[in-house]
Amino acid sequence: MDQLLWRVLPLLTLLISFSLFFYLQSPIIKLPGDECSLLPYSHYWISSKRILTSQGFISGSVEINEGKIVSIVEGYGKKDNSVHQVIDYGDAVVMPGLIDVHVHLDEPGRTDWEGFVTGTQAAAAGGVTTVVDMPLNNHPTTMSKETLELKLEAAEDKIYVDVGFWGGLVPENAQNTSILEGLLDAGVLGLKSFMCPSGIDDFPMTTIEHIKEGLSVLAKYRRPLLVHSEIQQDSESSSELEGNGDPHSYKTYLDTRPPSWEEAAIKELVDATKDTRIGGSLEGAHVHIVHLSDSSASLDLIKEAKRRGDSISIETCPHYLTFSSEEIPDKDTRYKCSPPIRDASNREKLWEALLDGHIDLLSSDHSPTVPKLKLLKEGDFLKAWGGISSLQFDLPVTWSYGKKHGLTLEKLSLLWSQKPAKLAGLESKGAIAVGNHADIVVWQPEVEFDLNDDYPVFIKHPSLSAYMGSRLAGKVLDTFVRGNLVFKDGKHAPAACGVPILAK
């Protein structure tokens, strides 16, 4: 017996060593019943009469196991007797979770503005299952491998939805390929630059030459460059306009940032994007113009670039589709953003372009701050911080105003899920399809609610949002992220188990 023990002991030691090695090397898997989910199980079915799959609407069920969609079955009410865990949503819409590719979470450095906890809780409450965080207004800004690592450390155990990251393209790294490649190798999903002052001292603006340098690097990685496209024109003196107008009037601010600023920037960009065509020197690079506001000359330039085969896309934001400059009250600085909200005619043309497919996708440009910088009491549009707080309201705002223009649920999902997933390279997200992450929002398009002080709002400073006081349609019931039920009936899961998304 002793001899047998001595013979098997080395083998047992070896097996234990291997087991321990693989345990330490493997990622930690959140088990069903832990605090990541409001459900006590990881294998279950979701049933509804209205499920929007990658093939269109069905009445049936979606099977979810260990965070992924493993089967989709048509036929509402048809249940296998062996299936015990079924969540029946009846007439509620089951749809891919929204993906917001333009969000400022401001951490590290400015958690008094927003932060990973409040920002991602707001996202989950609004049916947004993935956000891509901008490289500013956090401090330090995300412009290198080292500053990305700081952001990843700050996000640990704080994110309730999945979060990807854009890196910053600024003169310093545009002129130093090793810094830029280090940032891309570290996993940012693409880069972001400004063609005008960003408002943040450590995120300087880029010229078109810097942008071309960045595109030459991005072409090798096949990742996008997102551009804030405004260039101040010498022929227009912003300081003169500011000096002659009433700073409490929104029109004064609007006059300081005319559509010609957007047009000038986009002219330079589309001159560069001709090289992104197949066979061009920048093939593999892609330019994405963020928060388009001008529906006239700027949009026409982009349409022409698309027609000739340039790799270029556009987003606009719900606030440009909801508000108009004529309706903004004096001193109400909640509406200040850049580019500015333009007139009602411009808004209608944006809707037309969106529904015709000329505008590719939607994002919030959730850009929060602290009350003292928004200057609500002073009401000075020229000095107040610019930015619309809106992350939690992406879905109901778009639906409430979109359905009046003929927006369908299928188109809504295309603009908020499928197209954003493609831009950010998120191959397992954006659609309810077998093999994809079980990122799902369950909501009631017909249910209206008042966005008032009694409504549970999770962004850091709800009072700063221009949407407060609205009556909206489209109530979010439940939100699933990788199969975890992270939000239900106004409450979040006890633990933040979202996953940081890094490009490979």
UniProtKB/TrEMBL annotation:
The uppermost taxa in this organism's lineage are: Eukaryota, Viridiplantae, Streptophyta, Embryophyta, Tracheophyta
- Coiled-coil annotation reads none
Cellular component GO terms held in the UniProt record? cytoplasm
> Which cofactor does this sequence's record say it needs?
Zn(2+)
- Name under which the protein is recorded: allantoinase
Residues covered by the Allantoinase composite domain: 39-92
Q: Which residues form the Amidohydrolase-related domain?
A: 93-486
Q: Where are the transmembrane segments?
A: 6-24
Q: Does the keyword field hold Transmembrane helix? A: yes
Query: Please, which domain of life does this record's source organism belong to?
Result: Eukaryota
Q: How does it assemble?
A: Homotetramer.
Keyword annotations of the record: Hydrolase, Membrane, Metal-binding, Transmembrane, Transmembrane helix, Zinc
Q: What class of enzyme is it?
A: hydrolase
What gene name is given for the protein in this entry?
11424917
UniProt family annotation: Belongs to the metallo-dependent hydrolases superfamily. Allantoinase family.
For bias type Low complexity, the affected ranges are: 231-242
**Which terms in the Gene Ontology molecular function aspect does this entry carry?**
allantoinase activity; cobalt ion binding; zinc ion binding
Q: Where is this region: Disordered?
A: 231-254
Its UniProt pathway annotation is: Nitrogen metabolism; (S)-allantoin degradation; allantoate from (S)-allantoin: step 1/1
What the entry lists under NCBIfam families is as follows: allantoinase
Q: List its EC numbers.
A: 3.5.2.5
GO terms of biological process kind: allantoin catabolic process; purine nucleobase catabolic process
